[in-house]
Amino acid sequence: MKNTPRKAEDMLPLTPAVLHILLALADGERHGYSIMREVTQRTGGQVKMGPGTLYGSIKRMLADGLIEEADERPDPALDDERRRYYRLTNFGLRVMRVEVQRLQQIVRLAQSKQVMGGSEAIGGLS
Amino acid sequence: MSASSIKRDKGFSYRLYCLLLYGYPAQFRRMYACEMARTFCDSYRDTVRQHGRSGVLRLWSIVLYDLSVSLFIEHLSAFKAWLKQLLAIEERHGKTYMSLTNIVFAQRTDTGLKRQSNEDSVISILPEDQQVMASKGVLFVVADGMGGHARGEVASQLAVNTIRDVYYQQESDDLATSLRLAMEQVNARIYNKNMSESPQPEPDKMMGTTCVAAVVQGDTLYVANVGDSRAYIVRNGQAQQISLDHSVVAKQLREGLITKEQAINHPERNKIYRCLGVHDVVEVDTFTEKVQAGDLLLLCTDGLSELVAEEEFVGIVQQYEPQESVQRLIERANEMGGRDNITAVVARVA
Q1: pTM of the predicted protein model
Q2: What is the CATH number of the domain that holds A93?
Q3: Is residue A108 part of a domain?
Q4: d(CA B134, CA B137)
Q5: ipTM of this complex prediction, to 2 decimal places
Q6: Is residue B95 domain-shared with residue B117, that is, in the same domain?
Q7: In this structure, is residue A40 part of a structural domain?
Q8: How many structural domains are present in chain B?
Q9: CA distance, residue A98 to nearest chain B CA (Å)
Q10: What is the DSSP string of A32-89?
Q11: Choosing a second label site near B93 at 20 to 30 A (CA), which of B43, B189, B257, B342?
Q12: Which residues in chain B have their CB less than 8 angstroms from residue A78's CB?
């Protein structure tokens, strides 16, 4: 049921799409396309999220209570059509924080093993 | 490149994308297809603005990749939901039974598209004990809870469980009275809960619930109700509402103060003047009807009766088996906007 208290840790790990959507909503409400544009811009075009991945993730995030629908209104920068806006819930904010902490730990681990530096080349894809 | 050819290409791409959206499961499509098409349009416009025509090809390659991946994921998740329901892991959401006294029934409840949580509750009881079955019959209860902070859910759940316990414990042969007593018991329990939480609560901060309970025993149907959840008998293509709506609008309609047309779009049509749990005593209406083979019984909350027209639900319950009917009824209410929680029980007397 929806009202049982859940731990943010239970939601981890997040899929990349979910984490990027949470990050895009961290500074305020956005509609779907605005989320997509924010993600592309902030990642320098590395992450390209299509509408299917976007709305599939939104659907699951709504069901998990990570985000909620704000209201429907036009985006003044685009046209007159009304768009559905989404915003973070407190639970979503907590989940994002613990996920970022988890990733920080991985980065620290990598740093401690010095996989990023040194003169030896590390085998990779490119 | 002329402006008109850009416009033509855009129209073509948009139509193609809309067509491809039909690949998604129906429920997903209903909720997001419009938004997705709009998002596609926005991306298209910005891509052409930034990269010209060459960007369109890149956009399509991203979109097609996204489509194939997410189509797979959404179908998988729809399949998992279906499987879960089939295995009745989520017990509150769907059950079908076949009873020895030839009654086939199914129940289903759904949050709808606009609400955050489901405050409706539903229960269907087929006694295992043949003696109890013969004397007390099959019980169906639907309740629509209200009150903030998930308390509506508590109230409606308390209602269906209390009715089940109290009804089957009554020793009297008078089944209509047994149902009424069970309803009164629900009222007392919710009322006491309200009082124990705050000694002088304001009426609109208290939790409460509507409730309609129906028993089929032999060839008789007993119905008790408080509020605006409904019980219908569907026979020969006609629906007859057995329960009495305790809504302000229905009362005005009965008293001839407003017309049926005025009632349909009345701003206060959701307001009820009687519900369980808000006052220390409650008046319960009970009804007794004869049923015959082929009759269909429908119990529902206003999330269904407000949105799905009578002729439409009659068509559905007559055409399909109960299990499929409840599913279709809820789908239909969601297609009509799904603005409230939706609950339905359909039983076929054979």
Answers
A1: 0.55
A2: 1.10.10.10
A3: yes
A4: 6
A5: 0.81
A6: yes
A7: yes
A8: 2
A9: 24
A10: HHHHHHHHHHHTTTS----HHHHHHHHHHHHHHTSEEEEEEEE-TTS-SSEEEEEEE-
A11: B189
A12: 42
